Amino acid sequence: MRGQGYDGGSNMAGKVSGVQKRILDENPKALYFHCAGHQLNLVLQDACHQNLAVSQVITLLNAVTNFIRDSPKRWSLFNDIVRSENSDCDRPKMAPKSGKIRPLCPTRWVMRLDAVNAFLANYGSILKFLEEISDDRSINGQARSKAHAYLCRMEEFTFYFGMRTLQHLFQTVHPAHKKCQSKNITTGEVQKLTSNLADMLSSDASDEGSAAAIYDASKLSAIELKLDLPSVPRSHRVTHDITDEKVKSYFTSVFTDVMQCASHSILKRFPSKSLQMADLLRRVLEDPTMEESDLVTVCEFYVGDLFHQDVVRERRQWFGMCSRLDKSINVESLRSRMATDQTLKEMAPNMFNALRIYILLPTSSCEAERSFSTLRRLKTYLRSTMSQARLNHLALLSIHRELASTLDVAPIIENFIQKTTTRRNKFGVK
């Protein structure tokens, strides 16, 4: 074992008695990698919790969504309002809004982007819904008071701007998170991906134009929705002379703070000792100018797998061959050559071992956890008496659906029918 990867659960990732620590005590070469997908979720959690305004937006978003969805009567009324507004839309080019507002995912923060997009798309409908609930005297007082309180908060520009800020943050992180869930991504690609993501977020935080653009777009949309005008909270009113520039400066500072917190969280969470060793291993395969001290460090860590003198010789031969053939020097080129040329593995066994270790280092546990998530879809309430053998077979087909989709099912069906006389008679097979 040369690598292990889990999420951040203390039973698996604990530094004192977690599974990764117990394995490292027995095998120091089994580097532990915190799942990159889970870490990006924690980055979003850090950014949202450290800013009070954005944290309150998430709380209210979740409360309003649950308020609408928890009652079939309220849910039906909301969908009627959405359908009515779609039918009365004067702009035919506008896509009809969907009434399917989504609840916030409790664990996967990146997946909250769908909930934020759906909420913003139906913002006007939600306001109208809350108005009708608060004005309907036939509804109990508790529901009416809740609806009125939610309506007052949603009419504030602060809440709407926070929603737009959340949308921008989640949209920026979502592509990187999706890539981190790939089965074939390497530790080097994760480092480049997270480094570029941190730079993008830092650029948004330092660029006044990005914050100003979000503010201006939010202000225009707020005017269309007839929301309250932007204003500075009472705690930030140093004087009574509050100009438009000061109001804009306050909201852009909120946007800047959220982006900066996300960037700092990435830089804090991802540079681990395991990733540093993985980066040295990548440089063994790609970097002809790698310092001798770093090469010695890698060989000493992977003693028994890599031998220093042989690695030096094989690197010199490999890089020289690539330069003569005008081929790029990277992990992918080495992997493709090793896969097609068996003799290269035998001529450069240390480079082959380094490549094999590097590409097998785990970067994400999302794929494994996704296969476990299929259990609820397989063993439903109608299949509660399913045998263990059948469950295992269905789980294999679901987990390896890419391979299963290539199978020729005709002979499998024929074999199934031929098993019993009843099946042969039912399907008319002799």
Layout of helices and strands:
Blueprint: E1 3-6, H1 10-13, H2 19-26, E2 31-34, H3 36-50, H4 52-69, H5 72-87, H6 112-121, H7 123-135, H8 141-154, H9 157-180, H10 187-206, H11 208-224, H12 244-269, H13 273-286, H14 292-301, H15 308-324, H16 331-340, H17 342-347, H18 349-360, H19 366-373, H20 375-378, H21 388-399, H22 401-404, H23 409-417, H24 421-427
Parallel strand pairs: 1-2
Helix pairs in contact: 3-9, 3-12, 4-9, 5-7, 6-9, 7-8, 9-10, 9-11, 9-12, 10-12, 11-12, 13-18
Offer a concise description of the structure.
The protein is mainly alpha-helical and 430 residues long.
Structural overview:
The chain is 69% helix and 2% strand. The protein contains 24 helices and two strands. The protein has a two-stranded parallel sheet with strand order 1-2. It has four domains: 1-34, no CATH class; 41-269, no CATH class; 272-365, no CATH class; 374-427, no CATH class. The longest helix is centred in the middle third of the chain and has 26 residues, at 244-269.
Integer count of domains: 4
Query: Could you spell the SSE succession in H and E letters?
Result: EHHEHHHHHHHHHHHHHHHHHHHHHH
Largest sheet entry: 2 strands, parallel
By DSSP, the count of extended strands is 2
Task: Count up the helices.
Answer: 24
Radius of gyration: 28 Å
Question: What global shape is seen?
Answer: globular
Terminal-residue CA separation: 53 Å
Low-confidence stretches: 91-98
Mean pLDDT: 84
Strand content: under 5%
Helix content: 55-70%
Structural class: mainly alpha
* Order of neighbouring strands in the sheet with most strands: 1-2
